[in-house]
Amino acid sequence: MIQGICFDLDGVLIHTDELHYLAWKGLADRLGVPFSREQGDRCRGVSRMDSLEIVLEQAGRPYSQAEKDAFAQEKNQAYRAMLSNLSPADVPGEVVPTLKQLRQRGYRLALASGSKNAGLILERTGLGAWLDAVADGTCIRRSKPDPEIFLTAAELLGLPPSRCAAMDDAVAGIQAGRAAGMLTIAIGDSAVHRAGVYNLTRFDQLLELFPGPGEEGAL
Ligand code: BG6
Ligand code: MG
To answer: Which value, to the nearest 10 degrees, does the dihedral of the CA atoms of residues 42, 39, 11, 172 take?
Structure first.
């Protein structure tokens, strides 16, 4: 029986995945390096430095570690400038009512995001108010597809991973959730790839998967 749900942030609770893409695209354009949507999708869920390696795949020359560090910092500054305009109005309309309902039904909710900017996003959007625990990029050493972030989220919820579900838009995130021993729920790109046990098209379909006490659900 599932008692806790661990959510990825970018591309699940809010569409900051597009802002990551735009910030990387800005860097790639400045460097004159081709960067496709398909490459952008492969950056989902993976760490900032691993994303940079994907961005530089088609670069004409190798870059030093110092140059790469500067590129990652440049992208992060551009990304954070975009985040500074975020407000609660940027959270998709179905997200907060769904989180609220899940909590009323007794589920414990956690963030499991590899982003070091998660705290800023939760603060600017008010999403933090609906979460019982927060695991983000500042608490882990290994990024998705490693299970560390989901295991940390379960621990913060005080639940065994087998009692938790992991929801992620990244194929790497679904792999991480599976490796943590959680029920996996894909949405967006990972659902297109049918990576999860459940593959949703809308966030509020969670309410069909996780019924209230005494109700029958799809699980
Ligand atoms: C994940 C994103 O949530 O966070 C990745 O899906 C990103 O694309 C990773 O690289 C790290 O984010 P940040 O904000 O710490 O650079
Ligand atoms: Mg994501």
So the answer is: 0
CA of 217 from ligand 1 middle (Å) equals 33
What number of residues does the chain have? 219
Q: Which stretches of 28-142 are assigned E, i.e. beta strand?
A: 108-112, 133-135
State the distance from the centre of ligand 2 to the C-alpha of 48, rounded, in angstroms.
12
Ligand 1 atom at shortest distance from the alpha carbon of 17: 6
The dihedral built from the CA positions of residue 29, 124, 128 and 213, taken in this order, carries a sign that is negative
- Indicate the pTM of the whole model: 0.95
217, pLDDT greater than 90: no
pLDDT tens for each residue of 195-204: 999 999 999 9
pLDDT reading at 43 higher than 90: yes
Is residue 158 within 8 A of residue 139, CB to CB? The reply is no
- CA 202: distance to chain centroid? 16
Residues bordering ligand 2, an ion, CB closer than 5 Å: 8, 10-11, 169-170
Query: Does the beta carbon of 189 lie inside 6 Å of ligand 1?
Result: no
Strands (E), 49-190: 108-112, 133-135, 164-168, 183-187
115 Cβ closer than 6 Å to some ligand 1 atom: yes
- Any ligand 1 atom below 6 A from CB of 75: no
Cβ of 117 below 6 Å from ligand 1: yes
Nearest to 94 by CA among 104, 102, 105: 102
Using CA atoms, how far apart are residues 79 and 89, in angstroms rounded to an integer? 19
